[in-house]
Amino acid sequence: MEMIGRLKERIEQGYRLGYDEALELLRTTPETELCALAHALRTRYQGKTIDMCSIMNARSGRCSEDCKWCAQSKFHKTEVEVYPLVGAREAVEEAAGNARKGVKRFSLVTSGRTLSDADTDRICAIYRRIGSEVSVSLCASLGLLNLEQMRRLKESGVRRYHCNLETAPSYFPKLCSTHTVAEKLRTIGWAREAGLEICSGGIIGMGESEEQRVEFAIALRQTGAVSIPVNVLNPIPGTRLAGAPPLTDSEIVRAVAVMRILNPEAAIRLAGGRTRIKHLEERLLQCGVSALIVGDMLTTTGSDIETDKRMFIRCGFEV
C-alpha cells in the first residue's frame, strides 16, 4: 500500500504511466490495492458526484459496417428494430423525460457509417429544438462525420461528440474491416477542432488480451477524452460474437480500475452490458467508476434511473 500511495502522489503531480509500467502494475498488484488506487484517483478528480447520461437510438438498423459485436449491422441476422431518423417531437419527449429524472446529459445515436448532409440538417434542427425546450447538456454519436458537419453540430448546441475506439488499435482489425482506427481518430480530431469535448471508449470482453486492454486505455488517453464509456460485451444472437465467453468478475474489475489509473481525470462511465454485471456495479463504483449511462441502451434493456439513484446514495455518492 505504501507503493500505491507513492504512485498516487506521482499521478496527482502529473505523471502518467506508460504501457510497460501499467501492464506490470496490472499483473503484480493485488485487486484490493489496484481498486484502492483507482478509487483514490476517482475521489481526487471526480469527487463524490455521479454523472448520469442517457442515449436515444435515433436511427436503427441496416448499418453498412461489419462490426462483429453489433446487432445493427446489415451483415448480421438479428431481431433489431429498423427505422429511419426519428422526429423532433419524439426526441424532445425522450430528452425531457430523462431530464425530469435528474439526467443532465442526453445524446442521439444513429446507426450507419455517417450522416448525409440532409440528415445532418435534420438532426441539427432536432438538437436546436431540444436545446430550446429541455434543460440538458447535448451530446452526439453520429458516426464518422467530417469537420464541417462537426461545426454545424456545435452551432446547433451540441457540446460533446462520442466516437468509440471500441478496443485496442492492434485488435480492432480483427473485429471490423469496413473502417479503421485511423478514420476514428480523424473524426475525433475534427470534433476537437470544431470545439467539441470528446467521449470515447469501447467494449471489453470481445476476445482481446489483458495486454490489449492496457493498450486500449492508453489509446483513449491520447484522444483527450473527458468521458470514457466502458461497455461489457452483451453477446447478441445473430452476431459473430454471439458465443463469446464472458469475462470473469476479476477481469472486469481490474480492467475498469486500470482504465481509471491511466485516465485519472476522465469520467469512467459504465455503459452497455450493465444487466450482465448488476452484481458487480456497487463494487465498480469503488474501483474508479464515476459516471453511468442510465435508462435503456441502443438495442438492449438498460437500468431503471430511480433504482440507479438509490444505489448511488447507498454507496455514499451524490447525483
TrEMBL record:
Binding site for [4Fe-4S] cluster: C63, C67, C70
CDD domains: Radical_SAM
This protein's record includes keyword S-adenosyl-L-methionine: yes
Reactions catalysed, as given in the entry: (4R,5S)-dethiobiotin + (sulfur carrier)-SH + 2 reduced [2Fe-2S]-[ferredoxin] + 2 S-adenosyl-L-methionine = (sulfur carrier)-H + biotin + 2 5'-deoxyadenosine + 2 L-methionine + 2 oxidized [2Fe-2S]-[ferredoxin]
Pathway, per record: Cofactor biosynthesis; biotin biosynthesis; biotin from 7,8-diaminononanoate: step 2/2
Source organism superkingdom: Bacteria
Enzyme class: transferase
Domain Radical SAM core stretches: 45-274
Family from the record: Belongs to the radical SAM superfamily. Biotin synthase family.
Annotated protein name in UniProt: Biotin synthase
Encoding gene per record: bioB
